[in-house]
Design a protein that fits this description.
CATH superfamily of the domain at 3-178 and 232-252: P-loop containing nucleotide triphosphate hydrolases
Radius of gyration: 26 Å
Largest sheet: 7 strands, parallel
Strand content: 5-15%
CATH topology of the domain at 3-178 and 232-252: Rossmann fold
Strand order of the largest sheet: 3-2-4-1-5-6-7
Helix content: 40-55%
CATH architecture of the domain at 3-178 and 232-252: 3-Layer(aba) Sandwich
Structural class: alpha/beta
Oligomer: single chain
């Protein structure tokens, strides 16, 4: 049977660990088994148990303190992830070989890992070799997506990850519970956007004809091919969380290979007929 995985991606501060924590709690509430693997060597803490932690293999702080390397935070993280890519056997041993696993991989937030470095692509290919069905989950902070050009920037980041990894991807706007009612209503237009209308609304603010033409081309690409859509994620809304999970499950065909269990047949009621009495009544007649 296949195994299932979510690659939880997104910029730093987009709410990846909070997303994993919320999904763990939701899974427990619906009696479903979900595990988390931490792939961020710079992570400090999380409020849920993990089945594997990359910091057991390598940590950013150790790399930065190595005088022979002299890496900064970003260079140290890239070094850690490349070291991880050369030691996938550690991950295989940590994951084991349990069928029907459903695992959330909490990934680092550096966007270069998904744009021009091969590490995450190599991870996807390795997981697929281990019979995982992988879905990308790209998170963007809803508080960031309050202006059209910031929204387009978020879309381009999500699109870069989609093109690089070539896996089904569900894009999510997080921290909806932190928005005011007015902001929630305002952000609805970004969930299923009409890019041409947004372009027209903001055309006055673009002075350069070249940038206006480039922005229009980007909007056309997104709108014409329906490349990117977003689902809202409110950690306090159980129904909304379930809708997000259903979209992801559908993209990786979760549950289609589960064995069908026949319903139990109702037990027959015991026959309490007293045949001796019936025989006596027949004789008397």
């Amino acid at each position: 049977m296949p195994r299932y995985a979510q690659l939880v991606m997104g910029p730093a501060g987009s709410g990846k660990s909070t997303y994993c924590s919320t999904l763990i709690q939701h899974a427990e509430a619906i009696n479903r088994s979900v595990q988390v693997v931490n792939l961020d060597p710079a992570a400090e803490h999380f409020d849920y148990p993990v089945m594997a932690d990359i910091r057991e293999l390598i940590m950013v702080d150790d790399v930065m303190e190595d005088e022979s390397l002299r890496f900064g935070p970003n260079g140290g993280l890239v070094f850690c992830m490349e070291y991880f890519a050369n030691n996938f056997d550690w991950l295989e041993e940590s994951l084991g070989h349990v069928e029907d696993d459903y695992i959330l991989f909490d990934c680092p937030g550096q966007i270069e890992l998904y744009t021009h470095l091969p590490v995450m692509r190599q991870l996807v290919e390795q997981l697929q070799q281990w019979e995982f069905r992988v879905c990308g989950v790209f998170l963007v902070d809803s508080q960031f997506m309050v202006e059209t050009f910031k929204f387009i920037s978020g879309i381009m980041a999500a699109l870069s990850a989609m093109v690089s990894l070539e896996i089904p991807t569900v894009n999510i706007t997080t921290k909806m519970d932190l928005l005011s009612p007015k902001a929630k209503k305002e952000i609805e237009k970004y969930l299923d956007p009409d890019m041409y209308s947004m372009m027209e609304d903001n055309s006055v603010t673009i002075r350069s004809k070249k940038f206006k033409k480039l922005t229009k081309a980007i909007c056309g690409l997104i709108d014409d091919y329906s490349m990117v859509r977003f689902l809202p994620f409110d950690r306090t809304d159980e129904e909304g969380i379930n809708i997000v999970l259903q979209h992801i499950d559908f993209s990786i065909q979760y549950g289609e290979d589960l064995e069908f269990k026949e319903p139990k047949e109702p037990e027959e009621e015991p026959d309490n007929t007293n045949y001796d009495d019936l025989f006596q009544d027949k004789v008397e007649d």
